[in-house]
Design the sequence.
C-alpha cells in the first residue's frame, strides 16, 4: 500500500485508449459529474480498475490516495469487509423481488430512531428521487406550488434543479423561486412576493457547490427559514445527499442546530451500495402515502444490509469525529505547506468534507496545476469540487499526501510566483 | 423445491406482524407498485425472505412459483449463479468510485452491437431516469417542447407521467400532450394541434398498463408515428423498461418491426442488479452530451458485470424463444382449465409477459379471488398487473401451476357460477 512516491509521475496510456473507445459509444465518453472536462484532462486517469480502503488503482496500475470517495458514497473505506460481507450475505438470499424483505422494516426502524426529526422514512435509488419527491410532498401538503431554492445550489439533474440549461423548459421551473444563498433580505423578498402560493424551501446544510469555496450559513439563516415555514405552515426540506453520515448520524441539521421537516439522504448511506432515503416528520406521512413514488430496484435488500453495516462501523468507530479530525489534519497541513512556499490557500468546509483553493485567483489555474501535479503522483485532489475523507483515511495517508502536496505547491510556486 | 400442494393453504402471521411494524415507520408500510392495496390484502404475503430460480419464500416460510419476477427484473432466475458470480467478482474489485471501470466501455460496446438502432448508450439507475431524460433530449434536439404520450401508459412516477394526480402541478404537464393509445385519428389530431412545437413521441412497445388486458397495436400505428416524427424531424422514443430483453435482445421494437430514435431500458437488463440504459441513434449523441445527466451510483461496475452475464445467459439459452414458449404454455393451460370449468378467460400479452383476466367482468372480482386462491397455495399471480416469466421457469413449474390453478378456477366457479 505504501508505493506512492513524489518522484514517480504517472502516465495514462490505458486510460486514454479506453476513453477513446468510450467516446465512440457513450456521449462524452464519460458524462455527468465524472466527466473528465470537469477535472484537468490529460493529468487525471479516466478509468479505475480496483479500490480498497482509502485508495484506488487506475487501469494503468497507478495507485492513489483518494480524496473524492466516489464523490461521497465511500465513507468507511472501499470494499469495507463488514459492509461487503453484510451485502453479500443478503445478496445470496434475496435481492429484489415482488415485495421487500425484513430489512425494509429493520433499516426504517433504525433510521427513525437515529434521526431526531424522523417519524418515517422511504427508500429510493438516487438522491434526486428523494429531492424531487420532497417538493411534491411540500406541494401536496400545502396545496401551494412555489418552492424557494438557493440559486446555484446543487440538488440533482432533474429539470427543476439541473445546473445546466439544455433540455430545460421554462415550465419546468415555473414553480421554483430562486433566492441568493445566505441572503436573508433576498430570501424574505422572494418569500413576500410568493407567499400566497408558498409550499416550502429546500436547502443544503452548507454551501458546497462546485467551483466555490464551501461556506457556512449566517447564524440567523436557518432560524429565519424555519420561522417563515412555521408561520406559513410550509415545508422546510434539507437536501443532505452530499453530507449524509459525515457531519452527524442524525442528519446534518443536528450539526447546524435546526429542524427541517424532511431530510433527503443518499451517497454515503450504504457506503456505495445504491440507496437513497427520505426521512421526515409525521405531518408529511399522509401526503407521502398519496404522492405515488416507486422504482424497480428500490426495495432491494443488499443495499439495506450495507446501510446497517455502514452505520455499525460509523457508530463503533465514532466515524464522524474521526473524519472531522483527519480532514482538519489535512487542511491544516496544506495551509502550513502553502505558507512555507509563500502561497496563500483557502481551506473550507467541515473536516469530513474538506476543500482547498488558492486565495489569490478566481480562475482555478493554480488549483488545476496543484491538483494535476498531486494526482499525477498519487494524491487524487479534485480542482473544482469539494473533497471527502473517510474513516479509512489514516494519519499515514495524510502524511504521504502532504509529502506529495509539498511537491505540487513547489511547482505552483515556480510557475505562478505567488 | 417440489413442496407445493394444492391442499395446503398458506397463512401470513409473520408477514402481517412485520407489515404492522412497517406501517409505523414507512408511509403505507410498503409503497408504490409493491403496495399491498394493489394486490388482495390478506391473501398475499407482505414480505419475502429468500428467492431462488423461479421461486421465492415469504417470511412465513411459504414457497411460491413466481409469475411477477420482481415486476420484471428477474429474467434468468433469482440468484442466478452465473450472474451472481460475475457481480460478486466485480464487487470485490470495484463498485462505485470517482470514475467508471472498464465495464462501462465494454457493456456499452456490447449493447451498441446488439441493439440495431443504437449508436451509443448511457447508463443510469431507474427506468424513469432514462424516460425523463429522453424527453429532454427530444426537446433539446428539436428546440421544441411538446411530447405526445399515450394516455394511461406507464412511464414512471415523475410528475410528467405519474398515474396518480397528488403532488403534480399543471406546469409539470404543460408540455405533455395526451392521445388515445392506438388511435391514429386522435394521434394525428393532437399532432396537428401541436405541430409547431412538436418535439416527439414516447411509446411503450405494446399496451401493458395495470388493470387492463395487454394489447397489441394496429399495423399502421408505429409506421404512422415514425412517419410523423420523420416528417417533422422530431424524436420517436420507445419506453422498453418493462419489456427489455424479454421480446428481443435488440429492443422490443425489433419484435414489432419499427425503429425508434431512442430506447429506454431497465428492469431485466441486469437480472435485478440496479441498472437502466438509454440506447439511441447518432443524431441524439450531441444533445446527450449537452443535457446534463448524472447520478451517484450510475457508473458502478457490479450491475454492469451482472448485465454482461445476463446477456450471456439469454444468448446461450435462447432465452427469448424459451420464455415465449413457456409463457404460452401457461396461457394455453389456463385457457383449457378455465373452459373445463365453464369459465371464460382472456389471456393476453406475448409469452414472456403473459396475463389473464376473466372475460365476463370489469371489476376484477373473479380475478382477485382466482389470484388469491392460487397465491395462498403457492402460485403468485398478480390480479391487476401483467405477469412475467423467466428462463428459470420449467415445464414442471407450469404443470404444478396448472394443478393449483385448477383448484382456484373451481373456487371461482363455485362462487360466481360463470
Sequence:
Amino acid at each position: 500500500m505504501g508505493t506512492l512516491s513524489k518522484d514517480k509521475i504517472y502516465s495514462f496510456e490505458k486510460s486514454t485508449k479506453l476513453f477513446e473507445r468510450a467516446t465512440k459509444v457513450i456521449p462524452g465518453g464519460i458524462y455527468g459529474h465524472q466527466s473528465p472536462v470537469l477535472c484537468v484532462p490529460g493529468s487525471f486517469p479516466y478509468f479505475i480498475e480496483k479500490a480498497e480502503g482509502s485508495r484506488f488503482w487506475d487501469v494503468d496500475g497507478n495507485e492513489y490516495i483518494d480524496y473524492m470517495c466516489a464523490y461521497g458514497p465511500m465513507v468507511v473505506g472501499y470494499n469495507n469487509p463488514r459492509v461487503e460481507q453484510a451485502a453479500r450475505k443478503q445478496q445470496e438470499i434475496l435481492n429484489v423481488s415482488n415485495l421487500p424483505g425484513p430489512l425494509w422494516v429493520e433499516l426504517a426502524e433504525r433510521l427513525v430512531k437515529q434521526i431526531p426529526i424522523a417519524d418515517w422514512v422511504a427508500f429510493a435509488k438516487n438522491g434526486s428521487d428523494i429531492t424531487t419527491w420532497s417538493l411534491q410532498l411540500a406541494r401536496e401538503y400545502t396545496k401551494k406550488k412555489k418552492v424557494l431554492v438557493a440559486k446555484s445550489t446543487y440538488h440533482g439533474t432533474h429539470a427543476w434543479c439541473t445546473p445546466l440549461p439544455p433540455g430545460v423548459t421554462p415550465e419546468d421551473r415555473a414553480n421554483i423561486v430562486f433566492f441568493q444563498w445566505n441572503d436573508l433580505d433576498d430570501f424574505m423578498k422572494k418569500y413576500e412576493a410568493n407567499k400566497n402560493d408558498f409550499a416550502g424551501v429546500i436547502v443544503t446544510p452548507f454551501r458546497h457547490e462546485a467551483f466555490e469555496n464551501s461556506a457556512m450559513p449566517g447564524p440567523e439563516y436557518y432560524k429565519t427559514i424555519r420561522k417563515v415555514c412555521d408561520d406559513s405552515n410550509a415545508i422546510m426540506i434539507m437536501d443532505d445527499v452530499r453530507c449524509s453520515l459525515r457531519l452527524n448520524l442524525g442528519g446534518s441539521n443536528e450539526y447546524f442546530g435546526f429542524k427541517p421537516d424532511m431530510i433527503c439522504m443518499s451517497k454515503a448511506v450504504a457506503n456505495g451500495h445504491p440507496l437513497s432515503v427520505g426521512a421526515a416528520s409525521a405531518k408529511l406521512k399522509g401526503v407521502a402515502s398519496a404522492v405515488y413514488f416507486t422504482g424497480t430496484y428500490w426495495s432491494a435488500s443488499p443495499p439495506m444490509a450495507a446501510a446497517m453495516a455502514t452505520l455499525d462501523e460509523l457508530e463503533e468507530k465514532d466515524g464522524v469525529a474521526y473524519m472531522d479530525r483527519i480532514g482538519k489534519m489535512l487542511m491544516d497541513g496544506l495551509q502550513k505547506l502553502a505558507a512555507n512556499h509563500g502561497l496563500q490557500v483557502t481551506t473550507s468546509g467541515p473536516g469530513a468534507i474538506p476543500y482547498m483553493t488558492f486565495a489569490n485567483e478566481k480562475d482555478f489555474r493554480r488549483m488545476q496545476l496543484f491538483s494535476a501535479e498531486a494526482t499525477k503522483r498519487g494524491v487524487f485532489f479534485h480542482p473544482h469540487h469539494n473533497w471527502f475523507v473517510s474513516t479509512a483515511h489514516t494519519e499515514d495517508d495524510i502524511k504521504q499526501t502532504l509529502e506529495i502536496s509539498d511537491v505540487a505547491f513547489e511547482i505552483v510556486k515556480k510557475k505562478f510566483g505567488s
Observations:
- Chain B touches chain A through 107 residues (CB under 8 Å).
